[in-house]
Amino acid sequence: MTLIGSIRAEVIRQRHSRLSVVLIGFALGGVLIFLGYYSFVTYDPWSEVTVYLELVGGVIPLVVGLVCGFVAERELQAGGYAALLSLPSRRLALAGVMIQMEMLYVLVALVSVGPFALGMALWGQNPLSMGLWLQVLLGLILGGAALIPLTMVIALAWGRQFGILTGVLGSLLGYLLQTGLGDRIWWFLPPALPSHLSAGVPALADAGRLAQGAMDGYRTVQGLGWVMSIVLALLSWVLAMVWVAAFQPGRGRR
User: Fold this and answer.
1) What is the dihedral of CA 80, 81, 87, 88, to 10 degrees?
2) Per-residue pLDDT tens digits for 24-71
3) Which residues fall within 8 angstroms of residue 144, CB to CB, at 6 or more apart?
4) DSSP letter for each residue of 137-191
5) What is the pLDDT of residues 182-226, one digit of tens each?
6) Among 68, 54, 69, 156, which residue's Cα sits nearest to residue 104?
């Protein structure tokens, strides 16, 4: 068994599910709703982009919780995790599942950002360059990278309901930390990373609105967020690999 083989097997299994279609359709639907609204009601373009990215980043933990809950339930129904735990390497099997989910997440993030940027350009309201939109996309990807392993472990260990609940609480926390409550703490809390990293790109690009001291402080905190997104993603993957080696199905589940 190899990692590539594990990923390939998971991709083949995913072909029999409508999960990818549903997620991509959900992302496109959100893009069309916002573009349609902005075509009739015009605000400051910087605010339009920032609001959209904050809403998208805030809903990511919930979507991850729903997907991880679905995958955990699928594995449970497949002979009580037999497809995951009876293979020669549990770590490779779980890594294949999570990498496939990360790949799907990247695709959904691309669909959420690309058509929106194109639509804003067509409306003549696009304030960001191509390079900055790529940074926005990278912010969404890195911001959500730690959520998948953490939520997957919770869903497998305690069941689908707990995975979904984790997503719900993560989104609520993410939106709460978009207020002043999260100004100095959001960068080490995974649910807050997708919205802050992506929305921080237009905020820094439009830094002329901020005083120099405030801009320097904002840039420092954003830099911490980028670094911590990588650190937390690595730590969450390590946690998942350590956990799956000792996982005993049924313990802690209801």
Assistant:
1) -100
2) 999 999 999 999 999 888 788 888 999 999 999 999 999 999 999 999
3) 60, 64, 105, 109, 193, 194
4) HHHHHHHHHTHHHHHHHHHHHH-HHHHHHHHHHHHHHHHHTTSGGGTTTGGG-GG
5) 888 999 999 999 999 999 999 888 776 555 655 677 788 899 999
6) 68
DSSP state of 18: S
Q: With CA atoms as reference, report the closest residue to 112 among 33, 39, 167.
A: 33
- Burial grade of 207 (CB within 10 A; 0-12, 13-18, 19 or more): middle
pTM over 0.90: yes
CB 90 within 8 A of CB 247: yes
The CA distances from residue 19 to 4, 22, 160, 247, 250, in Å, are 21, 5, 16, 26, 26
Residue whose C-alpha is closest to residue 202's, from 250, 252, 139, 244: 139
- For residue 107, CA distances in Å to 29, 55, 74, 88 come to 15, 18, 22, 30
Q: What is the pLDDT of residues 77-123, one digit of tens each?
A: 877 777 777 667 788 889 999 999 999 999 999 999 999 999 999 98
Identify whether the C-beta of residue 65 lies closer than 8 Å to the C-beta of residue 17: no
Q: Read off the tokens for 165.
A: 């609940």
Q: Pick from 139, 170, 142: which is nearest to 231 by CA?
A: 142
Report the C-alpha gap between 141 and 194 in whole angstroms.
7
